[in-house]
Amino acid sequence: MSKLADVAKTAQSLSLTAMEEASRVGLRTSDIDHLFLALVLSDQHAGRVLRGSGITLEEARRAVAEQHAAQLASVGISVGAADPGRIVFNETGGYTWSDRVLDIFKESCRGGKRGDAAAVLRELLDEPSGMIAEVLYRLGTSPDTIRRRLDEDAPTARPAVPVSTDGLTGHAELFVPAPVDEVWTLLADPFRMPDWEPSIGGVVDAGGPVRPGDVLTAYRRDRRPDGKPLRIGPALRRIRVEVDAVQEQFSIAWSFSTPDAPDANTRYVRISLAPTDGGTRLRMTQAWQRQPARRVGPVRARLLRPLYRFVTWMQLSQLCVAIGRVFR
């Protein structure tokens, strides 16, 4: 993967997660503490190092809250512990980064730095306020220990990621702070599909845990999370969901098509689960199959390929965020 792709992937995933964490405590500006929490949840090497050091999301949230309270107490301000609310980032707007987080992102890309999550974490460890260092001490570790683990545990080779020739296939990985059986329970329950599949508003004829060959009827979501209506053509409202494959607590695959618009493309999604430090690692593949009536010529296909790849990447990013949000 190129440096530019690393930077884009890192900025996208960390931004979404950090701003979700800010929304839990009623903030619209994400600061270094929210960035740290996002790194704990990162699917990249930085996240694996933090979790391998025994840092869980709940413990990291606790340490951040205690550090904020300690900083206020040092200037004579005493506040009671406030119970964070649920994540409302997807239902609200107006989120931004603080200036010092923007500086961290800029520094992580300069010179020979990669701009990935590990580079961001290194810059965060050196952030001059010392807040993250104090948070790490509360978690039983230190910046030096984390730096050493970043060096010692660095992957020697980057795994090959399949690349689609037409831009209609994409791959993504996700860390979920929950055990495999809990994640599987979510994915294998058809009625819970609206909790994690952004396009689905409801499933009406499910009959229990999914089995290969099951065919379900779903309906497209007609409102955004913020309540604003979505314009959905009548032919696109009904969705045929077919279960293509199931391996209990290991992998599941679906196809999504629109029976009232037979010329529309069919979407395939496969999710594999594996246990990892602090939770579950998901590997996801999404592919679109063009219907014959929607085939395009080779020249136009080449011109549109970057757009297809971007759209596929965005769809997978939204899917990753939605699944992760369920367990946070």
TrEMBL record:
SUPFAM superfamilies: Bet v1-like. InterPro entries: Clp_N_dom_sf (IPR036628), Polyketide_cyclase/dehydratase (IPR019587), START-like_dom_sf (IPR023393). It holds the Pfam family Polyketide_cyc2. It comes from the Bacteria. This is SRPBCC domain-containing protein.
